């Protein structure tokens, strides 16, 4: 018998079934404190989270994880002139066009080109301040 796998109670631990893992959520936000807040919130709801400050960082982290995300949330205005719409598109090109996502913005109207593009692609736009109920609702609708 292999004792290395036994717990102190003498039981062999159950290896979690990979299909039972909670969905992987990618959050892209260039403000570190806001990013940490999203990460803590989503983890408190039981999701696994990849938190990144740019689309490039998110792609690298998802590649390291070795699993496509189940949902992508991105702030609209990111560093270096990148938009959340572009970030979500980049992740979808890399990991699957059908990945649901949402863009968070402080803009009160859908006038920016990137926001119009997000809306045309069917990507929901959440207006700041975003509350927990809005996020839970969009995640549960997107992830089932």
Automatic annotation (TrEMBL):
The answer, when asked if Phosphoprotein is one of the entry's keywords, is: yes
Q: Which domain of life is it from?
A: Bacteria
Query: Which keywords does this chain's UniProt record carry?
Result: Phosphoprotein
Residues covered by the Response regulatory domain: 24-143
Output the SMART domains linked to this UniProt entry. REC
Q: Which InterPro entries match?
A: Bact_response_regulator (IPR050595), CheY-like_superfamily (IPR011006), Sig_transdc_resp-reg_receiver (IPR001789)
> Per its record, how is this protein called by name?
FOG: CheY-like receiver
Identify the species of origin: Paramagnetospirillum magneticum (strain ATCC 700264 / AMB-1) (Magnetospirillum magneticum)
């Amino acid at each position: 018998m292999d004792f290395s796998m036994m717990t102190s109670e003498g039981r062999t631990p159950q290896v979690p079934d990979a299909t039972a893992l909670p969905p992987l959520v990618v959050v892209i936000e260039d403000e570190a404190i806001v990013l940490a807040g999203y990460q803590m919130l989503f983890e408190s709801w039981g999701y696994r989270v990849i938190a990144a400050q740019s689309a490039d960082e998110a792609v690298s982290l998802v590649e390291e994880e070795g699993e496509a995300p189940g949902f992508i949330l991105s702030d609209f205005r990111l560093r270096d002139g990148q938009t959340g719409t572009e970030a979500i598109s980049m992740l979808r090109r890399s990991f699957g066009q059908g990945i649901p996502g949402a863009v968070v913005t402080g803009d009160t109207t859908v006038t920016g080109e990137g926001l119009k593009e997000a809306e045309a692609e069917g990507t929901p736009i959440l207006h700041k301040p975003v509350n927990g109920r809005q996020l839970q609702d969009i995640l549960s609708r997107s992830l089932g």
